[in-house]
Amino acid sequence: MSKEKESHDAVCLECGDRIIYGRSDRKFCCDACKNKFHNRQARNSRHFRQQVNTALEKNYFILDSLRKTSLRNIQMSDLRNMGFHPEFFTSYRKIASREAFMCYDLKYCVCGKSVTSISRISVMSDEDICPHDR
Questions:
Q1: Is-contact 77 113, C-beta < 8 A?
Q2: What is the pLDDT along the chain (134 residues), one digit of tens a residue?
Q3: Which of 3, 28, 46, 107 is the most buried (most CB within 10 A)?
Q4: How far is CA 107 from CA 36, 68, 93, in A?
Q5: What angle do CA 37, 38, 39 make, to 5 degrees?
Q6: pTM of model > 0.85
Q7: Contacts of 110 (CB under 8 A, 6+ apart)
Q8: How far apart are CA 36 and CA 66, in angstroms?
């Protein structure tokens, strides 16, 4: 078989070089390019998770500091000014006309443009779980 018949029009996803040998569905020209590509994908995923966790931690700190004060109602705009990111939460539940959100073990309700009822919920221990669920 001639060399021209073995080549195909695929290009490496990492470096963009033309792939001139191997299977017709090959995506990388060499192992180094394959490793670089997958390492970058993993790094981007880790970075995204780190950003989300940082935002959740900040939200938790803000909510917990408000919970410790006597303040039980605050405008969302004021929360945003404190650095709160309302798009990051760990749980959501609709209760009648109110929306209940969780940030780990802190629960807060959003009613209109204000946040109310910031409270800590009890965390279930192993004793709270039914024996047949273990």
A1: yes
A2: 444 444 457 899 999 989 888 888 899 999 999 999 888 887 778 888 999 999 999 999 999 999 999 777 899 999 999 999 999 999 999 877 778 999 999 999 998 899 988 999 886 555 544 444 44
A3: 28
A4: 42, 13, 10
A5: 95
A6: no
A7: 76, 86, 98, 99, 101, 116
A8: 45
Under a CB-based contact definition with an 8 Å cutoff, are residues 117 and 108 in contact? yes
Separation of alpha carbons 54 and 51, rounded Å: 5
* Token digits of residue 5: 């018949």
CB 101 within 8 Å of CB 110 = yes
Closest CA to 66 of 19, 124, 34, 109: 109
